[in-house]
From TrEMBL:
The keyword Signal applies. Keywords: Signal. Pfam families: 3D (PF06725). This is 3D domain-containing protein. The lineage of its organism: Bacteria, Bacillati, Bacillota, Clostridia, Lachnospirales.
Length: 233
């Protein structure tokens, strides 16, 4: 990600891991201690009912699964992944917050898991855009969109590592101004659903920077003005 200024340096030191997307009943993520790059560290994941605040589940295990994407991105020897089987079926309908710590430090991107219709209805009731409640999309208006890639020119040595700790993927990762589009938001641009999980010094206000695998694709995207939709629920 393209960086300006010093605020980012502080964040980089705290990068200790993140959750990836849920795969069915598996919670996937990674975590490490950068001062012990080849040592597996313990991860604790807790699942809390968002409405009642009750902790319904807690897992504690080492994050030691090898992942080539981690090694390729400079995360030690790459043996820092974890996969946790979570039986969501055993829980009542509702929204659950999934939080984790690695070596005592919080993972950068807590997730929300929504089960059943109840939470969906709640989310829609909170939306002021009643006319869009059946589409699941809410227009955020027109944004300037640009592209970036893992190259030095675009990302200044960060490669695919994002400010939230996830590994950037094409057709998935966007950098945003989190005051406009909060981290973790799913937004649709030109039919593709992206996740807001990165930021950059040059991304301010109504501006989305879209991650591409190559600089050629980045150049091809250029600068555009595109309508951005928030994906609800
Ligand atoms: Zn580039």
């Amino acid at each position: 990600m393209f960086l300006i200024g010093g605020a980012f340096t502080a964040l980089a030191a705290d990068l200790d891991g993140s959750f990836d997307d849920f795969e069915g009943n598996t919670i996937v993520g990674w975590g490490w201690d950068s001062s012990l790059p080849n040592t597996g560290v313990p991860v604790t994941v807790t699942i809390t009912n968002k409405e009642t605040g009750e902790q319904v589940k807690s897992f504690h295990q080492p994050a030691v699964t090898y992942r080539s994407d981690l090694e390729e991105n400079g995360i030690g020897n790459g043996r820092h992944g974890f996969r946790i089987n979570m039986n969501w079926d055993a829980l009542a309908d509702g929204a659950y917050v999934v939080e984790g710590t690695v070596d005592g430090k919080a993972l950068s991107n807590p997730k929300t898991y929504v089960k059943g219709e109840t939470a969906q209805t709640t989310a829609e009731n909170n939306s002021t855009e009643e006319s869009h409640e059946h589409t699941g999309l809410k227009s955020l208006g027109f944004f300037r969109t640009t592209g970036y890639c893992p190259c030095k020119q675009c990302s200044e040595g960060w490669g695919r590592r994002t400010s939230t700790g996830s590994i950037a993927k094409s057709s998935h990762t966007i950098a945003v101004d989190p005051r406009i589009i909060p981290y973790g938001s799913k937004v649709m641009i030109n039919g593709i659903i992206y996740t807001a999980e990165d930021r950059g010094g040059g991304v301010k206000g109504n501006h989305v920077d879209i991650f591409f695998d190559t600089h050629a694709q980045t150049r091809q995207h250029g600068k555009q003005t595109q309508e951005v939709f928030l994906v609800l629920g």
